[in-house]
Amino acid sequence: MRKALVAGNWKMNGSLAANRELLSALSGAIRGSDAVAVAVCPPAVYLPEVVAQLQATAIAVGGQDCSDEKAGAFTGEIAADMLREIGCQYVIVGHSERRARQREDSAWVARKFIAAQSAGLVPILCVGEQLEDREAGRTEAVVAEQLDAVLDAAGVDAFDRAVVAYEPVWAIGTGLTASPEQAAEAHAFIRNRVAERNSQVAEALRILYGGSVKADNAAGLFALPDIDGGLIGGASLDADSFIGIVNAAAARVHK
Ligand code: PGA
């Protein structure tokens, strides 16, 4: 049985005052549950403050990125060990915004995934196709390339301490979501791809959906067989929306 995960990716949003207000609403409403784990991933500068505010709550904290290097002369970068030291449990790696803007390729993302696990963090590995890939019928080829790079570098057993997020790039922040058929197909493809190497690891792997998940479409997505929660951008900045999504994940039938 897979426990759902709902993770909020705040991206480059927030302020000390706004974070406090959002977190006090979330921590008042979100209780520990056997059905769903919850995490927030704020910008790195706010992590210590967010960790402190969420102490003794059921909400975990994650980073949005980490370096593939352990320490040293890497200006502006943040090591996975540092995230772990200040209290993170998760880190997002390979988000499409970083693949595009920072030109992170799949080999680099794989090194970040390994660095995260070496530090004791659970990586949330993002994969997903661009609109032109989907239109050209290349969705599976793109997702396979992104996934295989990590499977090859880290080994399939590493996926028992990792989460995958399928995020079609054309659905991120656009208000478009993948149709249930498109999402179900992509999630099944990912689980099968992992199962080709180890079926037990694949069965236990949590695969999140991301891309314009809102409180009113979450239940439909989470009901699909291979969807185990969500990576939430815009809707994670609004307490009522995020709580609605967490409740939808908690209410889903166990898979
Ligand atoms: P969105 O972002 O929910 O705003 O579409 C999702 C993500 O990029 O993780």
Superfamily at the CATH H level? Answer: Aldolase class I
Total count of helical runs of at least 4 residues: 11
Bound molecules: 2-phosphoglycolic acid
Q: What is the level 1 CATH name?
A: Alpha Beta
Number of β-strand runs: 8
CATH architecture: Alpha-Beta Barrel
Structure write-up:
With 255 residues, the chain is of the alpha/beta class. It has a single domain, classed as Aldolase class I (TIM Barrel), CATH 3.20.20. It is 42% helix and 16% strand. It has 11 helices and 8 strands. An 8-stranded parallel beta barrel has the order 1-2-3-4-5-6-7-8, surrounded by 5 helices. Helix 1 links the parallel strand 1 and strand 2. The longest helix is centred in the middle third of the chain and has 16 residues. It starts with a strand and ends with a helix. 2-phosphoglycolic acid binds next to strand 8.
Question: What does this entry show, briefly?
Answer:
It contains 11 helices and 8 strands. It is an alpha/beta fold and 255 residues long. It has an 8-stranded parallel β-barrel, surrounded by 5 helices.
